Amino acid sequence: MENNVELNNIKLDNTGVNTPGTVGVDANTQQTQGDKSAWDIYTKKTHVIGRTVSIITLVMLVGAPFLIGKLLGAYPDLGAVGKGFLSVGIVWLVSSIAEFLIYTPMLGAGGGYLAFITGNLINMKIPCAVNARDMVGAKTGTPENEIISTISIATSSMVTILVLALGVLLMVPLQPVLQSEVLQPAFENVVPALFGAMAYKYYRKNMKIAALPLILMSLLFILVPSLIGSTSFMIVPSGAIAIGVAYLLFRKKNTQKTTEE
């Protein structure tokens, strides 16, 4: 029986000849394992850094009013603060959970941490990440989508900071323009116009799924205008309707395949 010897991941038989196909298989296996190991390390470090910065940001945001009040001698009543926080927190609890469950799979770990820390998800971060993902053809839940989302959101955050800095410097000269009554309707419709243009692309891809929630939500907002200020809450029922329609279409398609077979 020939004795095989493994040397530097290249198998040699007793004649010193490479075993056919071994080198390529071992190289591919090593590369796959190396990529997976590097991705695992990246993911772990991302969570460590993201959680650390999230905690620091939360402490700074919550602690800043108390610190300022303490220094200026205007420390708030903790009982009143607690009641006010609960009244607001309970209202936004459902919305916060819904946004986390919807946006995190879309953005990935790195993009999710950056987006939730810097804010402006609906106005800035989500459109930027979705557009960047579509440009490169990355799919949700893949490492490519994670990297693209993180880079796009980081770029969006830096651009936002730059624009805000310029806005602060130019606030006085541009004040007549920003407060112009003629331009107010345009400023109020920037976000709807942005999301309308983005939404059409997805409606066209899945019109059967998008039609029912689009029609129902439009009628609901027209009949109950007060719900316009609670769009975050309406994500939950509209998403549930879309999932239900997709499930029914999936079952119908499978039934047709079974019947044809």
Strand order of the largest sheet: 1-2
Helix content: over 70%
User: In this structure, how is the largest beta sheet organized?
Assistant: 2 strands, antiparallel
Radius of gyration, CA atoms, in whole angstroms: 27 Å
Overview of this protein structure:
By secondary structure, the protein is mainly α. The protein folds into four domains: 1-74; 77-169, no CATH class; 177-205, no CATH class; 206-261. The protein has nine helices and two strands. The chain has helices at 22-71, 78-118, 121-136, 143-169, 171-178, 184-188, 190-205, 207-223, 231-260; strands at residues 5-7, 10-12. It has a two-stranded antiparallel sheet with strand order 1-2. The longest helix has 50 residues, at 22-71. The chain is globular and about 80 Å long. Keywords: Membrane, Transmembrane, Transmembrane helix. The chain crosses the membrane at residues 48-72, 84-103, 109-126, 147-174, 210-228, 234-250.
